Description:
The structure holds two protein chains of two kinds.
Chain A: H1 2-32, E1 48-49, H2 51-59, E2 67-70, H3 74-79, E3 86-87, H4 94-104, E4 113-116, H5 128-137, E5 143-146, H6 152-157
Parallel strand pairs in A: 1-5, 2-3, 2-4, 4-5
Chain B: H1 2-15, E1 34-36, E2 42-44, E3 52-58, H2 63-79, E4 84-90, H3 95-105, E5 111-113, H4 116-121, E6 130-134, E7 140-145, H5 150-169
Parallel strand pairs in B: 3-4, 4-5
Antiparallel strand pairs in B: 1-2, 3-6, 6-7
Amino acid sequence: MISGLISKTTAAVVAVASLCFVFAAAHATAQWAAPAPASASTIPNAQLIQAEDLSRLLKASSAEKPLILQVGSRMMFAQAHIPGSEYVGPGSQSEGTQQLRGRVAKLAHSQFIVLYCGCCPWSRCPNVGPAYDLLRQMGFTNVKVLYLPNNFGADWASKGYPVASGQ
Amino acid sequence: MALAAALGAVCLVAAGAQSAAPKDLLNKPAPGFSLKTLDGRPLSLAQLRGKVVLLNFWATWCAPCEIEMPVFAGWQGRYGPQGLQIIGISMDDDSALARRAVDRLKLNYPVAMGTARLGANYGGVLGLPLTFLIDRRGVIRARFQGETDLHAIEKQVEAMLAQAANSQTR
């Protein structure tokens, strides 16, 4: 009878320990898993810049020119991108955020930076949200995101704003 | 004075970055391509002459694309016997990602990796999803950009298949 009780107790302890192990493993995995991508919709409206305004800024001789970074698709960047912009994407993948982090690491936090993607409809873009969040977390205070409601083709290239091609 | 103005205009054109608008490809021959599918088979648009082709540009990070593609797989099964051929062109940088998506979505049509050149030939793939409908003679009859009413695409596929079938019975 006592041995039976000990067996039941042992079994219970093993079960609880197993559960603890499972929960701990899940927690560890959650800690190391990539965070859920922030939606583009989480970017404050005040940090958005319209295509017309950015185009005007790029043409103006006296205005401070931003560092423009494309955080989306390399293939799309190669086809057409804003002249002078650099590819550092994709913002939704760790390889892209590492590239972005490396590109801006030595810049002053007051550097004027414009991010853009245009891969797909704004509400579906997986790239600009995480990229914007990363720069804010790094302490950059002068970051704008180019608002492209549909995609780069429809909202920039087709509207006649300047584009360049190539890597 | 006129010469100065002309020279100025030339300089402006030379100095300015090009302004690009998608080429108008409707009712023109679809640009040809020869690619290899993800499983290594040759894929040539020219060899699909006689079929109605749905050419879909997509990527694994494109949420609307992931909604469309299983629907396209359904159409391949339903309309394939009538002559529909769907082709997927992944605009991902990494073919491994595309391959995993194809397996996960159980796509039953050929998928190949796209290139910047192919994208440029199709007027610039500057937003996804992007779908073209190409008739049996190899002419582009429709272009659908972004999140599209799939019923509208399906209606057009049906019409193109029926039109081709009718003309063949004459």
